[in-house]
Amino acid sequence: MAPPSSRRSGHSRRAQYSVFTGYVIAGIGALIGGVLLGISFWQPQAFSGLRNGANEVVAPAGEATSTVRSGSSGFFDSVSGYLKRGSEYAALKEEVELARIRLAEAEAVEQENARLKALLDLKDNDIEPVTVSRLVGSTSSSTRRFAYLGAGSADGVAVGQPVRSPRGVVGRVLEVSINSSRVLLLTDSESVLPVRRASDEIVAFAEGRGDGLLRIRLINLGLNPLEVGDVFVTSGAGGYYRPGVAVAVLSEITDDGGIARLIADPSATDFVSVDPIWQPGAVDSAATPIEQELGEETSDD
Length: 301
Fold this sequence. Notes:
Blueprint lengths: L12 H30 L5 H76 L7 E8 L7 E4 L12 E3 L4 E8 L4 E5 L6 E6 L5 E6 L4 E6 L12 E4 L11 E9 L2 E6 L8 E4 L5 H6 L3 H12 L1
Antiparallel strand pairs: 1-2, 1-12, 2-5, 3-4, 3-12, 4-5, 6-7, 6-9, 7-8, 8-11, 9-10, 10-11
């Protein structure tokens, strides 16, 4: 007896009916499909109701799918935007740092320009300086206040010549060698400079205290007319300094004058000019006791 799988359908009436029924159903389905296809070509609006109904059924599912898609799209957009903004922030931060560096360089250039302009001001005046030189050093731990110039007799520097910065008087040449000089600063305890108040003709002596300040001692004692903030300039007496050069600003009142701060602070000065003595004849003919003392000190050194 052959196995059931090898039997033909003709040996079973039920199998024959099943095959026949399948063909009939397939034929009916194809006929219905053809009819519907023809109707859709000739009358497209005939199935609009069915389509709308189907749309109503699948609309909630489509809306949910769209919501999920929009949410995922927004999430990925947020992540990509965060990464993009992070890179932009890093680039902007680097640009700001570079801008700060450029700003610092510009400020340094501006300060250098100001210093060079001040150096030019030393030359662009009615006095032809003997030379312009750099202050190469100064005393800091002694009551004696000296500074040193990088110019000497080879540059025309001589003892007694005034030394000033663009702001005002610094001191006077005390000793000279071939390529360097020693300057007696105004704040030295042995320095005495005739001055007057810039606003009028009140005369005084500016004496060094050895501590970076000056003592303004009035010549005519009595009622002290000075006020804090008064500016003192050279009076021209003595013949060394020409009149009208800034010296100091009064910061404290005393019984016989006051205490003043230097306008031309040597510690903040790079370049100075060495000027010729204003009245060489007056200096040579009548030296003050202070000048004699300075001359003796020079010879002793």
